[in-house]
Amino acid sequence: MKIFGDIRSGNCYKLALLCRQLNIPFEWVPVDVLSGETRKQGFLEKNPNGRIPVVQLDDGRYLSESNAIMCYLAEGSKMLPDDRFARAMVLQWLFFEQYSHEPYIAVSIFIVKYLRNPADRQLDLAAKREPGYRALGVMDEQLAETDFLAGDDYTIADIALYAYTHRAKEGGFSLEDFANIQRWLETVRQQPEYVSMDNALN
Ligand SMILES: N[C@@H](CCC(=O)N[C@@H](CS)C(=O)NCC(=O)O)C(=O)O
Question: What's this model's pTM, rounded to 2 decimal places?
Answer without folding.
Answer: 0.97
